[in-house]
Design brief:
Number of helices: 0
Largest sheet: 4 strands, antiparallel
Structural class: mainly beta
Strand content: over 45%
Distance between the termini: 36 Å
Oligomer: single chain
Radius of gyration: 13 Å
């Protein structure tokens, strides 16, 4: 029996980014918002395109370079 899930893989996002229809979503790192997604799934959000993922995958928060502070930081919506 398959377990289908709906998990927010971007808790710090204003809009949320949800993995749906996956067999399992495992949180690997809560600080960097990194998740292992097992099985075929979809990534949905109201402010981006829906992505169909055919295989297992790794999802992590996008890092952008801030030239004023000369550091990398999480991308914001």
């Amino acid at each position: 029996m398959e377990t289908k899930t709906k998990v927010n893989v971007a808790p710090s996002s204003d809009a949320g980014h949800y993995v749906e229809k996956a067999q399992q979503v495992v949180s690997l790192d809560e600080v960097n918002e990194t998740f292992l997604v097992k099985g075929e799934s979809e990534l949905t959000t109201k402010n981006h395109t829906t992505l169909e993922m055919k295989d297992d995958c790794l999802i992590t928060c996008q890092q952008v370079y801030n030239p004023f502070q000369k550091t990398f930081e999480k991308s914001r919506d």
